[in-house]
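Re-running O-methyltransferase to confirm reproducibility after the cluster update. Everything else is unchanged from the original entry.
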Amino acid sequence: MANSTERVDGQELWTAVDRYFTDLLSPPDAALDAALKASVAAGLPEIQVSANQGKLLHLLARLQGARSILEIGTLGGYSTIWLGRALPKDGRLVTLEAEPKHAEVARASIARAGLGGIVEVRLGRALDTLPQLAAEKPGPFDLVFIDADKPSIPEYFAWALKLSRKGSLIIVDNVVREGAVIDAGSEDASVHGVRKLHEMLAAEPRVSATAIQTVGTKGYDGFTIALVT
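Result of re-run:
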């Protein structure tokens, strides 16, 4: 163990540890690597989940035995591919994306990964497309992953609950905000969004939830997971 004078910077260490686990447990994958490269080439923000986080989503979906998944926030399709690969051949994943450019990049990457028959990318603001989706009566989703604009998270969660069933999992990313989540006086709309979400969870008798802090290549953040009971 390094002594205090030899310790590396926290972020450098977190990234190195993430790389260690990724190299061992999530080795290079052509479709996933291509999705990342396509996102970079298109100038999309590099805010997708890390490889380890994507693998966690994949494993949770498999443990859930998910046959239908809803993703709110597609970006370049990286997390979509991880989730889509957890589904059976007759499964369904609906992912919602507000930005046309993001949706275009995601569709190409999803098709390249061989998931075009399972995944549907819907373009439009999620607060517009969610009511449309609900009106179609798609049946409950087994898992919902929320990774979109944080000020709207409370509304996304409310829709996720409407579109779920007893036993569904709802996962929300980026809820720690480098610790800012505890700042009741914050003027950051994203912080307000995640704080309101957790106040809703605390008062909602239909779910049992917890939140986990994380460190890694994405810095200091965390996620919330809720079981619909």
